Amino acid sequence: GLAWKESASMHLDAKDRDAYFSQTINTSLRIFGSLGLLLIAATPLFFGALFDAKYHEAMNYIPILVVGALFNAAVELYAGVYVAKKMSGKLATTNIIAAIISIVLNFIFIRYIGLYAAALAMMTAFGVMAIWRAFDVRKYIKITYDKNVFITLAMLHGVVICLYYVDIAWASVTGLIIASVSAYWMNRRELRRIGMLMKKKIAK
């Protein structure tokens, strides 16, 4: 959001710029990825209690939309670099390309797969834009990625999404357990820090 773009502008000329951007982007993507994992895993268990049965079909598109939202989160993180560099033209160009991809995919596939086309088109457009920006920002900032975390998150999403579409109670529970344990383990340091801060505030 706005706070990240302001922070990116402030750190653009700092000596530890590359380390700062690398840590921020890696941590943010890990947290967003973990939240997406939990959302996908929890949906089959809680959707019926929160929404009317007539909306049940919407469950089919949720994993695709969540992955699309994760790509969009990456897009916004990279946008901070462009804003800091005052390169609004780059933002506009990638947005236009993503829009064209989405429109074309919708036009081609909606007659064959219905609403899946809209969800897949959105996910693909954000995915392409995220990858494009990831390579493009290398011209300005050297970002070092934690590849092991991203590979792990990709594999976990694959497993949880497969269990999601099995649409059986045991599969949904298994998916939520996997997602919860994985999310905690990958973000345990941040969770401990939050716990310590809460304890300090309560102590005051």
Could you characterize the architecture of this molecule?
The protein has 204 residues and is an all-alpha fold. It is built from eight helices and no strands. It has helices at residues 2-11, 17-50, 62-84, 88-113, 115-136, 147-166, 169-186, 188-203. Helix 2 (17-50) packs antiparallel against helix 7 (169-186), helix 3 (62-84) packs parallel to helix 5 (115-136) and helix 6 packs antiparallel against helix 7. It is globular and about 55 Å long. The protein starts with a helix and ends with a helix. The mean pLDDT is 90.
Gist of the model:
The protein is built from eight helices and no strands. The protein is an all-alpha fold and 204 residues long. Helix 2 (17-50) runs antiparallel to helix 3.
Category by helix and strand content: mainly alpha
Largest sheet: none
Helical fraction: over 70%
Count of DSSP-assigned helices: 8
| N-to-C SSE string, H for helix and E for strand | HHHHHHHH
Distance between the termini: 31 Å
Brief descriptors of the model:
204 residues, mainly alpha, globular
Topology:
Layout lengths: L1 H10 L5 H34 L11 H23 L3 H26 L1 H22 L10 H20 L2 H18 L1 H16 L1
Helix pairs in contact: 1-3, 2-3, 2-6, 2-7, 3-5, 4-5, 6-7
